[in-house]
Amino acid sequence: MIDYVSVYITDIEEAAGFYNAVLATLSYKQYAKYSDIIAYGKGNINFILTLSNTHYCPQNSNPIHIAFSAANMQQVDDFHNTALIHGGKTERKPAFREHPCGEVYTTGVQDIFGYKLEAVYKYPKG
User: Fold this and answer.
1) Is 109 exposed, middle or buried (0-12, 13-18, 19+ CB in 10 A)?
2) Phi and psi at residue 118, to the nearest 5°
3) 108 vs 50: CA distance, rounded Å
4) All structural domains of the chain with their residue ranges
5) Domain 5-51+63-121 is of which CATH architecture?
6) How many CA atoms, within 13 angstroms, populate the side-chain half-sphere of residue 28?
7) Residue 57: its pLDDT value, please?
8) Phi-psi region of 43 (alpha: psi -120 to 50; beta: other; left: phi over 0)
9) 104: Cα separation from own chain's centroid
């Protein structure tokens, strides 16, 4: 349904350092980097960071929550730990939680710009 999500950031190099490390834990790769855009995805570009002024960043508005799919629980743990190493803050430690699709293993962090990020592993039912 959604082709990609784009969020605004205030420092392209700071964003690259944080997101390159954190998204690598979920097997995302950087597809493009320009002076004002960084694009990530798995097979296709589906997450874009766009350089803008502080008017559009979450410090001056309501934070956005973006959930990324994880392939397993280890990726969720790595996502959380890597985010903290690169300046992120814990919103929710990795744990099993109830979710509309059933129980999931998930973590929540706040990135260096104030966005709320989540890694979610929907483990097979059985």
Assistant:
1) buried
2) -135, 145
3) 22
4) 5-51+63-121
5) Roll (3.10)
6) 25
7) 57
8) left
9) 17
Q: What is the pLDDT of residue 63?
A: 65
**Distance between CA atoms of 14 and 65, rounded to whole angstroms?**
20
| HEC secondary structure over the chain | CCCCEEEEECCHHHHHHHHHHHHHCCCCEEEEECCCEEEEEECEEEEEEEECCHHHCHHHCCCCEEEEECCCHHHHHHHHHHHHHCCCEEEEEEEEEEECCEEEEEEEEECCCCCEEEEEECCCCC
Six token digits for residue 49: 């960071």
Distance CA 84, CA 119 (A): 14
The residues with which 45 forms a beta bridge, in sequence order, are 41
Note the pTM of the prediction, 2 decimals: 0.86
Residue 90 has pLDDT above 70, yes or no: yes
